[in-house]
Design brief:
0% strand
Length: 204
């Protein structure tokens, strides 16, 4: 059948109409991969985590640890988790950009905290890209503040291609994150660059 988009209003009905679980698993996998490829630059932390979880599920299917029916169930749970995370962010007053920034900051803060406790911080939920329940208020305020600063710079014509504007954005982000105290100086350049790249993405 033709590729199916997760954004289609009748996505679930199209999947249920397929003749067997193997076909359903294949179509859901393709739809998820398409969604990841289209959205990963807009929210890298969320969609990279989703991609990793999807790869684990497909590997389990290929290794016959799970069957196609269970594969469909787990992939549907992944999609539901992402949608819940995005809805949760909206309820907390985060825009798509500030949510993406929040997750980048949360990942970096979690990695730093794990390093201080003596492990690498790479453990993930087995089949879901969960980022936890309640949002960190301090990081949420930081993400919102960063977005406000970015919006000021975005008033410049052709700011996405203006190297001076982009450089000043990165500098301002680093200044703001230094005051938080949870981020190492060595990682600020990369973190600021990733945030600016998120801001440069056109809205979907």
């Amino acid at each position: 059948m033709a590729p199916v988009s997760i954004l289609d209003g009748d996505f679930e009905q199209k999947i249920e109409g397929l003749p067997h679980d193997e076909a359903r698993a294949s179509v859901i996998e393709h739809a998820l991969r398409t969604q990841i490829n289209e959205r990963v630059d807009q929210n890298p932390a969320l969609y990279q985590r989703l991609a990793e979880a999807l790869e684990r599920i497909i590997r389990q299917l290929h290794d016959q640890v799970i069957d196609a029916a269970e594969c469909c169930k787990r992939m549907a749970a992944l999609l539901d988790e992402v949608q819940q995370q995005e809805a949760h962010a909206v309820q907390h007053g985060l825009t798509p950009v500030s949510f993406a920034v929040y997750l980048l900051l949360a990942d970096a803060a979690e990695t730093n905290g794990a390093a201080e406790e003596g492990h690498d911080g790479t453990a993930l939920a087995e089949d879901a890209p969960s980022f936890g329940g309640e949002l960190d208020e301090r990081l949420k305020r930081a993400a919102a503040g960063i977005e406000e600063m970015l919006q000021v710079h975005q008033s410049v014509i052709d700011w996405r291609e203006n190297s001076d504007v982009l450089r000043e954005m990165r500098r301002a982000i680093k200044r703001m994150l230094r005051s938080d105290g949870r981020f190492r100086e060595a990682e600020l350049d990369e973190l600021a660059s990733r945030i600016v790249e998120v801001a440069r993405q056109p809205a979907s």
